[in-house]
Amino acid sequence: MKAKDKLIVALDFDTREKAVDAIQRLEADVEIFKVGLELYLASRGKIVEYLQEKGKKVFLDLKFMDIPNTVAGAAREAAKMGVFMFNVHVPGGKQMMASAREAVEQVAAGGLQKPLLIGVTVLTSLDQNDLLQLGITQDVKELVIARARLAKEAGLDGVVASPKEAAEIKSACGDEFVSVCPGVRPTWSAAGDQKRIMTPKDAINQGASYLVVGRPITGAENPAEAAKLVLEEMEEGFEC
Ligand code: C5P
């Protein structure tokens, strides 16, 4: 797999226009874009179609969590949209995740491309104290691995994870289990609010399946140049 097939650029914008501008600057170098809640709502969902008309793959980052029947319905619609990847919250439970899996399989059986179904284990904004407030006493890292295992049992294709957890998730859930890793920072970019960061080279080296990179690319003076540099660093990771 080439670096280009593993790089996902996060489009964290509050208007369709800003996102379109970024996409136009990046389309020669980037194949996969992540659309989250903000841009999805700001564009009334239309940004997905815009990207697909350009032949780009979409990671629909809407993190579904509800009762199984409702999540199955949302998963069916996401799959019908032809997105490349979408996600659900693992704490929604095994039955909820299995319902999403079943919905994806039903849509794929009708001939449509099957999206990757990814789980969110523990939000990285939560620390041990936040978990305690929620009545969870387990160590965060153990919790991430336990939830990754549950996601695998429920039939998910992988999880969102820090690149620092990628190797451990692979050994717990197998080489085929996908890890989608944000928190990636090339040495030349600012960490911003990301705390547990890793360079693109090291993240690939640790076994990350996909890297999600936002501001180091979209906030750069020359986004295309920044994307090329990230891709070069990722290639170095394959060589290690
Ligand atoms: O700009 P930056 O590279 O920090 O963007 C990372 C993207 O990945 C953002 O869209 C952020 O919401 C998302 N993300 C994250 N950490 C997680 C899950 C998602 O940074 N645990």
Provide key terms for this protein.
240 residues, alpha/beta, TIM Barrel, eight-stranded parallel barrel, globular, binds cytidine-5'-monophosphate
- Distinct compounds present: cytidine-5'-monophosphate
Question: Roughly what is the average pLDDT, rounded to an integer?
Answer: 96
The run of helices and strands is EHEHHEHEHEHHEHEHEHH
At the first level of CATH, what is the class? Alpha Beta
Number of helices: 11
* The CATH superfamily title: Aldolase class I
Helix content: 40-55%
Largest sheet: 8 strands, parallel, barrel
Going by CATH, the architecture would be: Alpha-Beta Barrel
What is the strand tally? 8
Query: What is the CA-CA span between the terminal residues?
Result: 15 Å
Measured by DSSP, the beta-strand proportion falls in 15-25%
Indicate the CATH topology: TIM Barrel
Briefly note the structural class of the backbone: alpha/beta
Low-confidence runs: none
Q: Within the largest sheet, what's the order of strands? A: 1-2-3-4-5-6-7-8
